[in-house]
Amino acid sequence: MWRLTILAVFASVYIYVVAGCAAPRAQVAGTAALPARQAFATLADNGQAHYVIRAGAVDAVTRHAADELADYLSRISNARFVVLEDGASDLPVIVVGGQGAVQHCTAGREAALGDDGFVICQWSGDLVIAGNTPRGTLFGVYWWLDRQLGVKWLAPDAVEVPVKRTLRVSTAGIRQKPRFAYREVLSAEGEDKAFRAHNLLNGESHGTSFRPSPSGIDMWDHSWLARGGDFDFWTLVPRSRYGATHPDWFGGGQLAMMSPDVRRVMAQEIVQRLQTPNAPKKIWFGIHDMDWGWDMDASSRAFVDAHGGAPSAAFLDMVGDVASRVRQSVPDARVAMPAYHWGFAPPEGMTVPDDVLVYPMTIQVDYSSALNEGRNASLGQGIRRWNEIARHVLVWDHIVNFGGYLQPTPNLYPIGRSIAWLATLPHVEGYFGEGDWQSRGGEFSSLRVWLIARQLWSPSEDVRALVREYCNAYYGAAGPAITRYIDRMHEAVRVTGDVLAEQTPIDAPMYTYGFVRQSDQDFDSAERAVADDPTKLARVRQARMPLDVVILALRARYAERAREGGWDMDIPVRKARLLAALAVEHTTKYRQSGDLSALRDLLDVAWHPSAAPAIVSALTTADWQEIGALKLNLYDSARVVTDTEAAHGGAVSLRGDSEAWAVQLKFDKLPRGGNWDLFAEVRVPDATLAPPAAAIRVGAYPPMTRRIDTPVRALPGSAYGWLPVPGGPFSYGTDHERGAYVHGVGFAKGQTLLIDRFVAIRHDAATAATSAMLNGTAP
Questions:
Q1: pLDDT for 396-413, tens place per residue?
Q2: Ranges for the Alpha glucuronidase N-terminal domain (predicted)?
Q3: DSSP letters for 505-558
Q4: Furthest CA-CA distance within the chain
Q5: SS3 383
C-alpha cells in the first residue's frame, strides 16, 4: 500500500473571526441587498425557510455542494430549502462557491486557502460559503454542517442529523484550511466515497482510485500512488526482459542500485509510461522496492557505508538520478519513494531533491505508543530526520492489527498523539492511514476513519474528547459504556507493556481475565442502555465482536477463574451472537488473508493442558518456555485448526506447497532475560505421500538466507518431531524485523504441514536437550 499528493502551500488549521467582511465590489447576481454583519442569522423557524441557496458555478461538485446543503438544512429544520436555478429572490441567499466568491470574505487572499480551504461569511445580507476550488467549496459546506450545525457522518451507513425548530447560525467570519494537504484512510469503511468526502478526506490512491466516483464528489487528489502512477523495481527494470542477460542487476533481492545501466533502463521505462496518451498527470510517480529484504551488492554497500550505513542512501541516490534523467524528456516529472523496512532509516550527508517525495512507512510501529514515544522513539527519529532532509514528506501510517482485525487494539489515543506530533514537522504534508481494507466490520473501523479525519484537519483537537463525542453520537445511551471500554483497553496495555505490532497474535498478555471480565460487563451495560433501539443495539454488538472473539478463542485460559468468580461465559450464546453480528456487518476477514472459515476453525479448537514436552524433561521450569500456536504470527494460508495429535489440541496448519513465511515467531514472545535456543515442533499428516524432495524449512532472520531444510523422510512418520531454529542463541527483543519462521519446500499441491509450538530453552541448558534430540532420545 503506498503513495500521495502534496499541495504547494499549507499551514496549521485556524479559525478566526473576520474583523469586518470586505466591502462588496459588486453584488452577487440575483440576490437581494439586505443589512450586513448580523451577529446571528435565522435560517429557518417553525418549518419556514428564511434563505434560499444558489450554486455559484455550474460544475457538478459545486452544484452537489448546494444540493447537499439544501437537503441537510431541510432535514434539520423541517423547512423546505430550495436551490435557485436562476433569477432573483425576495429572500437572502446562501451562496455556495463560484468564481470570485471567496473575495467577498477575504479581500483577495484566496492563495492562502489552498485547494481544500474555504471561507464562510456574511456579505451584503447574504451568506457565502466558498473555496478556491469546487472541492474547497464542498468541504466548506460539509464542515459547516458538521461543526456548526451538528450533522455527524459517523459511518458509511450512519448519519446523525439534529432536529432544530429554530435554526440560527453565527455570522462571524470563518476561514479554514487543513494542516495536512493530503489526507486518506485506506480501509473498507474509509474507501466509501461519500463517507470519505463528508469527513473532508481528499486523497484517493490504490484500488479505490480505479473505481468511478459519482460526479458530485469526483474531486479527489490522485497525485500519489493512484491508478497508473506507481510501480515496483522489477516492473520498471523488467526481470523477465533482463534477468537472463544481466543477472547481476537483480542480485540480493532488489536491484544493483548504483549501476548506471539499471538507472538508464528505469528512467526509459518511466518516460515511456508518462508519455502514453492516458498517463496520469501532475503526479508523484511512485518507485518502490520489492516487499522483502536486500542483501546488497558491493557497489551499493560501499555507497551505503559512506552515508552512515543506511541502505536508503543507495535507494535515494538512484531515485534522484532517475528523476533527473526522466525530466530531460518530461520536464515537470516528480517522483515518490518509500522509506520502508530496510530503507526506513534516512542516510547521513544527503538531502532529498525537491522533485522527490519521501513517504516513511511505519510497518515497525508499536501501537501502544505514539510514533515518537516509548518503543517508537527510533521510528520517530527517522521520520523527524526525513523531515529535515526532504521538502516533501508524507507519512504512511499503519493503524490496525493486521493479525487480528477483530481483536481489541488500543491505539486510538496514540494515533491522536501521533498526528498532533506530525503536525509539528513542517515538511510532513500528508498522511495515509492503512487500515483493514480487505473487509468491513473491523474493530472500531469507522471510528478510526472519523477520528483521523478530524485530526488531520485540526491536529490540536483533544483525541479523548473526540472519542467521547463519537461514542455518544454513534452509540447513543450506550456511549459512556463504550468509552469506558476504550479507556480500559488503553489502560490494560499500559499495565502489561505489550508490544502491539502491526501483526499481533490473539494470545496477547493484555487480554487478562480482569480485562475481559470487566469489559464484558461494560458491554452488558451498553446493551441494556439501548435495548429498545435496534439500530444502536446492532452497533454495540458490532463493537463487542472483538471481545467475543478473544473470550471464545482463549476460553480455556479463563475457565477456572470464571468458575471461581461465578461468571458464566455462556459460550454457545456468545458464539451465536458473534456470528450473527459478523453476518450483519458483512465481515469477510478476521485478519489479513484469514477468512471466516479460518476464524471458525480457530474458535472450534478445544484447548487443554499438557505435560511438558520430553525435550525439556530434564530441565527446570526456569530453563525453558513453551510458545504455543496462539502466540505465532500467521500469514497467507496459515490457520489454527483442531489437531488431536497436538499437545494442547490445536496447531497451525499451512499449505506445504506455499513457500510464504506464513508462520513466524517474533522475539518479544521469548522470556525477557537470558539467551535462548529455539526448537519448532512440526509434523506432516500424510508424510508417506510427500514427494522425495519435500522438506520443512526452518529459518531465522536477518539475514534472509539463514535456514535449515529438513527432509520430510527424516521426520518420525506422521508424528510430531522437533527441528532446531538456526542462528541462536536468541534473546528477547521488540524489533519485529527479526524473527523465526517455518514453511514447506517441494510439497505436492494440497498437502499440509502442522506446527504445534516452539520451545525456548535457555542456552546454557540447551546442550543436553539438543543432544537428546539429535540422538533420537527425544520425540
A1: 999 999 999 999 999 999
A2: 61-143
A3: -S--TT--HHHHHHHHHHHHHHHHHTTT-HHHHHHHHHHHHHHHHHHHHTHHHH
A4: 98
A5: helix
Output helix, strand, coil percentages for the chain, rounded to the nearest 5. 35, 20, 45
Of 731, 730, 670, nearest to 706 by C-alpha is 730
**Cβ-proximal residues to 725 (8 Å cutoff; 6+ apart), any chain:** 677, 678, 679, 680, 698, 699, 700, 740, 758
SS (H, E, C) 746-757: CCCCCCEEEEEE
The answer to whether residues 99 and 172 touch, using CB atoms and an 8 Å cutoff, is no
Q: In what order do the strands lie in the sheet with 695-701?
A: 633-634, 663-666, 739-745, 695-701, 707-711
Q: CATH code for 40-172? A: 3.30.379.10
pTM reported for the whole predicted model: 0.91
Cell numbers representing residue 478 in the block: 450506550
Average pLDDT of the chain is 91
Name residue 676's beta-bridge partners.
730, 762
Task: Tell me the pairing of strands 284-288 and 230-232.
Answer: parallel
Domain range list for the chain: 40-172, 183-461, 483-604, 619-774
CATH number (1.10.443.10, 3.90.420.10, 2.60.120.260, 3.40.50.1970) of 619-774 reads 2.60.120.260
Domain 183-461 architecture: Alpha-Beta Barrel (3.20)
**293 near 253, Cβ under 8 Å?**
yes
Whether the CB-CB separation of 330 and 282 falls below 8 Å is answered with: no
For 5, phi then psi, to 5°, come to: -135, 145
Tell me if 751 sits within 8 A of 656, measured CB to CB. yes
Half-sphere exposure at residue 474, Cβ-oriented, CA atoms within 13 angstroms: 28
Which residue in the block uniquely carries the three cell numbers 535457555?
762
| 387: amino acid identity, one letter | N
| Locus of grid cell 508424510 | 687
| Residues 40, 148: Cα–Cα separation, whole Å | 12
Residue 502 has φ and ψ, to the nearest 5°, of: -70, -15
How many Cβ atoms sit within 10 Å of the Cβ of residue 306?
A: 12
